Amino acid sequence: MTPARKAPRTGSRAFAATWWGQAWVDALEASTLDAGRLSRGRTYARKGMVGPVTVTPGVLRAEVEGSAPWPYDAAVHLRVLTDAQWDTLLDAIAAQAGRTAALLDSEMPADLVDDARTAGVSLLPEASELDPECSCPDWGYPCKHAAALCYATVAHLDDDPFWLFTLRGRTKDAILTALRTRRQAHTGAAPEAGGTSRGRGVPARDAFASHSGVFTPPAPRTEGAESAPADSGPAPSPLATMPPSDASFSLDDLETLTRDTAQRARALTAGHTASLTCTPLDDAVRLAASGVGEHWFHQLVHATGLPPLDFALLVRAQRHGGPVGVTVARVPLTPDATAMAAARAALCNPDNAEVEDDTASTVRVRVWRNRLTADDEGVQIRLGPDDRWHPYTREGRGSTARWWPCAPATADPVAAFVAARTAAAQH
To answer: Which pLDDT does position 202 carry in this prediction?
Structure first.
């Protein structure tokens, strides 16, 4: 087992007890020259002003108390690894059995991080990767609330290095399952339970790529063609066999999935291949947005591990903007500066009657990354990678206030702003 490198401690000012926790602090403090906001963030963290921290793939979240009567919503985003990078990282973990044991013993093997970095995979964050966000009016990068969230996270990283893996895109359970699969493939061991061989299947993208032909639907039956006897009765259900009584799914569940699979297959034959690259989270959001029942919705929330409101937000983003809408909701993008400037100019044009406010003055718009926000109206539009503008409104009050997708995306920023304003007026 690789021993943990303990971080140097300098009295009460030290937040990290491990070398990987200190690496997190170093990345945070190297990301900004604003020592004042970092100092305030440390003070907030020490005073317990940071609420419970939640970690999901690519983002940390917590409520942080400040000068307002209600806490602010702070978040820190971190780039998730690609599937290819995860394969490299998992291979590095599996290369030495002691690495898995160390992780399960709450230690981060230093040689694992070094080997992964040599292979081009960064597990620990670089200074440029930590991307803070906060609902407070402070434009600091990071503001003191996001800085406090970063400092408060260190204790979680010290206790459980799997927090870093989750931030990079995969949970502890997913990693351990993948490692077991690798061991079985290497040793040729039989499946762990059930007594029968269960094939792993083929990824959809590979199956689709291997089919070089063109799908042709069956020709309609012509008059005089052989047909079934008139008294043969209704066609049997393709899923006529009931699942075992102890199964965690029902016949209705299987039929729902069968219909969904058929719809996706039909879309693939028409050339719509975006679903081939869906992650499990993408697929769960897509299913929930398709109108499944309440039971399914709750099951999907549980399977993703997301807080229900976070999952509901992504579902609404899917309904309004499709897969791109989900990306826009999850990640603050870095857009073309020219496009942002042109959109801001269009919104702030005093001759533009569509967006002129009630006081006969132009709207006041704040720009951050791909977002144009009119804070006093609770209206925001976000530029997506599809060059469309996605309308948002601020819903809720105090600590529950957050930005929600509210209307279909459009190529015109003015139209998107008006749609968001209309939606805000209806709340």
So the answer is: 57
Spatial strand order in the sheet of 402-405: 366-368, 371-374, 379-383, 389-395, 402-405
d(CA 392, CA 409): 10
Tell me whether residue 56 is in a domain: yes
> Residues 109, 114, 115, CA angle at the centre, nearest 5°?
95
DSSP class of residue 217? P
**Beta-strand pair 371-374/54-56:** unpaired
- Number of compact structural domains in the chain: 2
Could you please report the per-residue DSSP string of 147-171?
Answer: HHHHHHHHHHHHH-THHHHHHTT--
What would the DSSP string read from start to end of 291-330?
T--HHHHHHHHHHHT--HHHHHHHHHHHHHHHHHHHHHHH
Domain span holding position 126: 11-183
pLDDT tens across 378-400, in order? 999 999 988 899 999 998 877 67
Structure tokens at 93: 């973990």
* Mean pLDDT score across all residues of the chain: 77
275: amino acid identity, one letter: S
